[in-house]
Amino acid sequence: MSTRKFQKASIEELVQWYAEGSVVYGQSLDAADSRSANRAHDKIVGAYQELRSRGATSQLTPLLKSENETLRMHAAFHVLEFAPELGEPTLLWLAKRPGLLGFRAEYVLKAWREGTLEFP
Known about the structure:
mainly alpha
């Protein structure tokens, strides 16, 4: 997606694209489809950056309750930037999950606590 498309989108569309990108990202990783995962990641980051530029990142907070754990993971990561008291508990819960998702959540928490976590 182009930067221009993100700029023209409504906040609701940006949140929808963020969520869709996250779900596709998780599915792509499960299928070992790196191209699709990279495209989905770009969609997530583009939507997030546009939400941030508009001061609307708080619109991601409801995604912390999603049934999709990959979406919860992405939302918790980005929520750390403006509401760590909401993102951190979600990441702690996800870090206890088996597999790659739990590992990724644990890594994000580690980087957050060490002060080395960078937001796109």
